[in-house]
Amino acid sequence: MSARKAALVTGSTSGIGLAVATAFAKAGMDVTLNGLGDAAEIERIRSGLEREAGVSVRYDGANLMKADACAGMVENAIAAHGRLDVLVNNAGIQFVSPIEDFPVEKYDAIIALNLSAVFHTIRAAMRSMKAQRYGRIINIASAHAHVASPFKSAYVAAKHGVLGITKTVALEGATFNVRCNAISPGYVLTSLVENQIPDTMKARGLTREQVINDVLLAAQPTKEFVKVEDVAGAALFLISPAADQINGAALNMDGGWTAQ
C-alpha cells in the first residue's frame, strides 16, 4: 500500500480530466482514471502515465449515470490506494436545443452525469476524508455555472447546481480539513465543445467558423480558448498548501467572460 496521496478524477480518459490526472501523477500522486473510450487506448494512456510518472495509475470504468456505480468507484479507489485525498468531478456531457424541442432523455442524462454524479461521488468520499482529516474536492463547473446561454437549459441548470453543492460541502467539511472548490472554465476546445458545434450550427443557422468566433468565443474578451493545461494548473494550486483557506469558491478561468 502506497504512502503517497491518492486522487480520483472522473472523465479523465481525455480532455480536461486527463490533463488534471496527468498533472497529479507527475506531482507524485497515485491516480484513478475514469471515463469512456476504446479499451486499448485507455490502457495505453494508463500504462504510459504510470510508467512516465512512476506512480500507481488505475482505471475504473464505472458508469456515473448510476448512483451505486459512483459509490463503488470511490470505494474501490480507497481500497486500491489505501486512501483518497483528492476527488475531481469532471465528467460531463452536453446537448444543445431549444427547450421546447429538448429531448427529455437528454435532459435526464445531463443532470445525471453533470450534477447527480457529483453528489454521489462526494457522498461516498466524505466519510473517509473526514476520518483522515484531509480532503480536497474540486468540481469542474463552467462559466455556465454563473451565466446562461440559449439552448443549454439542462447544462446550465446542472452547472448552477454544481456551484450549490460545492458551497454546501465546503461548509460541511470546513472543520475536518476537507476543502471543496470549483473551477469554472470558459470554452475549452475539448471533444465536449467540439461535439456541440454541429448542433449549434443547426440551431442558429451558422457556419462552423461563425459558431467558433461569434458564439463560443464571443463572450470571452481574450478571444482565446482555455487550455486544458490551464485547468490542470488551477487544480494543482487548489490542492496545494497555498490554497488551504480557499473553500467554497469558484475559480473563474474564462478570459473575462463573467466579468462582463
Set out the fold topology.
Layout: E1 6-9, H1 15-26, E2 30-33, H2 39-53, E3 57-59, H3 67-81, E4 86-89, H4 104-132, E5 135-140, H5 153-173, E6 178-185, H6 191-204, H7 208-216, H8 228-238, E7 250-253
Parallel strand pairs: 1-2, 1-4, 2-3, 4-5, 5-6, 6-7
So how many helices? 8
Shape: globular
Oligomer: single chain
CATH level-two architecture: 3-Layer(aba) Sandwich
Counting helices, strands and paired strands, the structural category is: alpha/beta
H/E element order: EHEHEHEHEHEHHHE
Q: Any overview of this molecule?
A:
With 260 residues, this protein is an alpha/beta fold. It has a single domain (6-188, 227-252), classed as NAD(P)-binding Rossmann-like Domain (Rossmann fold), CATH 3.40.50. It contains eight helices and seven strands. The protein has helices spanning 15-26, 39-53, 67-81, 104-132, 153-173, 191-204, 208-216, 228-238, and strands spanning 6-9, 30-33, 57-59, 86-89, 135-140, 178-185, 250-253. It has a seven-stranded parallel β-sheet, sandwiched between helices.
